């Protein structure tokens, strides 16, 4: 589905809900243990940094006082703590990666289940509430969500721990600022810490002001990238049709359109990123100047040793860096927000009930019951009125009518895929099979393709060979275990015969055929119907077809047209 330049991320608090289910799932013990481990190591790592600050203070004071022997004696412990803190740091990364992968796998399994339940994949493409590029949301967005959330979340915890640990250090060693101004005496304890907070918050405010459009731009970028990828996939899927039409120019034009969206939006992304980086870098460059100014009174009073300056500078920098967390992660936070918005939108769309209208009930009785059925377009314009009809077990019905009269829509309504209209249908869905005009031919072994949607071990080799022979595909019998892209190998007529072979294997109690033999010559079509009728004598058939030749295989017909559908018995 295409998106437009106007696409902007919806703002919904419920998007954040996407993050929670994993932490309450059956995996919660793993999740919380890994997270607890990662946080614990992160806190330990910060504490090692505090220890290093105090160590530098002692070391440099001794070093600049010429006590080299004392300094050498301090080194073994320094090396030991360095190795320990590195081990803590890399183990924290290791735990985070395991957690990220487990979270992603769990979420992807849940999303796949939702996507492949209650025809959600169909509704997302054809329903009134669509979510573009579900493949991107399931494959890329979920991965980004877990990686980015953990990275940003643990960084935030790290920042808070660092802030508190070094704020205490800075407060204690920074001392008090005392001065007189306009006849008043000022006494500011912890002034270095306050200075760091004011400087960083001012910079954050400026960045928020100039950087916020980056969120919308990132959101749009993901849409446009996905559109280009979907366009390229279309070409792969329809390469032959495009080649026959000589559609290269048209395709080029279409893809260039997607690319133009990407280029226009990319310029915005680059511009906003430039702005964010510029402000961030300038700030980094000048961030220590306020510290020098604040330390000037101490320096003038000769109360600043190099060791003390080194500890103050390291504590001030750590406080600043932890407060800057918001600044430096602004772009990542923006990306995460847009990823969550896309996933929230997907969840809402998937969980929306199919629109009400035509009701479908699953019954155990062998007949197909149709009650007061009217088919409409999505805008409620009526297409066809079917009314009441019961198709008894073993009856063979032919559905006819001019092109566009609603024949395929009638079958979609029976399958529960078309809800626009009113009335109800009920039959035993589990015993029914639908053969559309363009049959689905997944790649893999021919046995897999033939057994679809059942697993390939469901049917014996002999049964597979028999049905292939029955549909005039005996030539493929010895290739059952060959892996190929069968959609490209088999001709459209052969694909339709393969679909009929599936029905012969599955042996449904009710078989719906929507022009399922339209690509065949009359001889093959006749042979297929004969094979179906003799192999499935008690199956109810509902065939949509244009050709009169099929009348002899059916005993009733439904003719759709203007007004009510007409039902009649067919003469043999
Ligand atoms: N998803 C859709 N949205 C809007 N209109 C639709 C949709 N699908 C089908 N229609 C419209 O519903 C009407 C009936 O379509 P349907 O495919 O059922 O006709 P048909 O009798 O099977 O045609 P044909 O014999 O050409 O296959 C057509 O006017 C079609 O344009």
UniProtKB/TrEMBL annotation:
Keyword hit for Transport: yes
Cited InterPro entries: AAA+_ATPase, ABC1_TM_dom, ABC1_TM_sf, ABC_transporter-like_ATP-bd, ABC_transporter-like_CS, ABC_transporter_sub-D, P-loop_NTPase
Keyword set, alphabetical order: ATP-binding, Membrane, Nucleotide-binding, Transmembrane, Transmembrane helix, Transport
Alphabetical list of Pfam families matching this protein: ABC_membrane_2, ABC_tran
Domain ABC transmembrane type-1: 34-335
GO-annotated molecular function: ABC-type transporter activity; ATP binding; ATP hydrolysis activity
Keyword Transmembrane: yes
Protein name: ABC transporter ATP-binding protein
Source taxonomy: Bacteria, Pseudomonadati, Pseudomonadota, Alphaproteobacteria, Acetobacterales
